[in-house]
Amino acid sequence: MNKINRKIAVLGAGGLGACLALELSQRGYQVDLYEEHSEPIKKASFVNEGKIHLGFIYAMDKEFHTSREMIIGALHFISNLKRWVEINPEEVISTPFNYCIHKGSLMNAEELAPHYQKCIDFYGEAKTFYKKKYLDLFDTIDASLLPRTKIDGIVNPEYIDDVFSTTEYSVEPRTIAEKLTAALLATTSINLMVNTRVNSVSKIDSKLKVSSTREEIKMEEVYTDVVNSTWNGLLEIDRTMGIEPINSWSHRYKFGNKILIPLKSDELPSCTMVQGPFGDTVNFKGKGAFMSWYPIGRTGWSEQDRPPEWDQMYSDSERDDIFLRSFKELSNRIPALDNLKFSPEDVSPVGGVIFALGNTDVDKHESKLHTRHEVGIRTFTNYHSVNTGKYTLIPYLAVKVADRLEGID
Ligand SMILES: Cc1cc2nc3c(=O)[nH]c(=O)nc-3n(C[C@H](O)[C@H](O)[C@H](O)COP(=O)(O)OP(=O)(O)OC[C@H]3O[C@@H](n4cnc5c(N)ncnc54)[C@H](O)[C@@H]3O)c2cc1C
To answer: Which of 215, 216, 210 is nearest to 10 (CA)?
Structure first.
């Protein structure tokens, strides 16, 4: 079938849907991009922390599958993104992360050190194989245990036992979402259909019918190929095609609070507290700070096919309360937070859905949520269901899905 005869629907204009639509358009295809929200890329790919994972956090996956997957995704993140938007990584990266071993961690520094070394070694191999650099910037990566005498400049040792200084970074997701949105709107071969909720996909001979609703009007359209990249809507739509999830799953709602004031690099350390239900701070320099405290910010849990519409369920005052309580817990651990000067209007207390296989929370050793490798593309002839798993994997997967549609992969 040639490109003219191909009619492709991409469901969900989040990070993956946007990158995939742009990639397909560059390869000469027309794409209908469905989005139930009023704007593209305003959900998980907007509110997330933007950490481009080097596998360090996935130390509980003893098989190393998740770390391997993340490192490959991380190596492709910026170089693939450059296919669709102009981006200077220096302008979007955070300060590097400290991995802070919280009291009660499921693993201690001695147990974590060999895992970090394995990530560093695998990074070296993958970098040579793919001929790419982490964030298009770094030849090598590192995680070094700091002497205990040095940690109280970063964290409060009453809560934190040890700190590894690493070369893992976040990228500021709102800036990337803005660039991708501008690219979508400027691309005439992408028909972005906002306020359009996909209800089902069904087979019609060798083609696929997408049924959707826009402003209470029901619509149907037939396609040669459909890609489901709806994340919080993934399972519900897959079920209409008779496709079952590969394992038990959960949807969580987690707050990713932003403080939108410019920061100096030394004003706030970027910290990930491991290994368990703790939290993170990220210093995005001129683009502000991100902070989340899991025991307070993980407000929603659902094992339904489609999670509740959490975004609409919290009042402004509930959001402010979640921010303030998270801030207090975090500033007990990272004292620099208390020195930040900001007003309530600078705070953006937003949350997003995390869909993952596994339905036991991260405080348990056996939780499947400590792994994230059974992700990616599931293909059923011309219907493709994509569980991105992590933001880190989006640009890598977008190109993979396009290859799959062209029969290259
Ligand atoms: C607080 C938080 C922090 C996180 N931190 C990190 C991190 O640091 N690093 C990392 O790698 N990952 C992180 N993640 C995970 C990451 O955000 C997600 O894996 C990723 O953004 C998912 O991208 P996506 O394109 O699949 O989904 P989304 O960006 O959510 O896009 C899905 C789109 O589909 C639309 N949609 C849903 N249902 C329908 C329907 N029926 N019809 C039409 N449209 C529909 C939605 O409105 C949405 O726009 C975090 C997530 C959260 C919530």
So the answer is: 210
β-sheet bridge partners, residue 377: 386
pTM for the whole structure: 0.97
Please state the atom number of ligand 1 nearest to the C-alpha of residue 16: 25
Q: Confirm or reject: Cβ of 21 under 6 Å from ligand 1.
A: no
How far, in Å, is the centroid of ligand 1 from the Cα of 387?
A: 10
The dihedral formed by the CA atoms of 284, 281, 250 and 377, expressed in degrees to the nearest 10: 30
Atom number in ligand 1 closest to CA 253: 53
241: phi > 0 → left, psi -120 to 50 → alpha, else beta; which? alpha
Q: Which of 286, 306, 300 is nearest to 255 (CA)?
A: 300
CATH 3.30.1700.10 fits domain 1-50+172-246+375-409: no
Enter the CATH code of domain 94-170+248-373: 3.30.9.10
User: Which DSSP letter does residue 54 get?
Assistant: -
Those residues with Cβ within 8 angstroms of residue 256's Cβ, 6 or more apart along the chain or in another chain: 47, 48, 49, 290, 292, 297, 350, 351, 352
Q: Does the beta carbon of 135 sit less than 6 angstroms from any atom of ligand 1?
A: no
pLDDT given at position 374: 81
- pLDDT tens column, 380-407: 999 999 999 999 999 999 999 999 999 9
Q: What is the DSSP letter of 354?
A: E
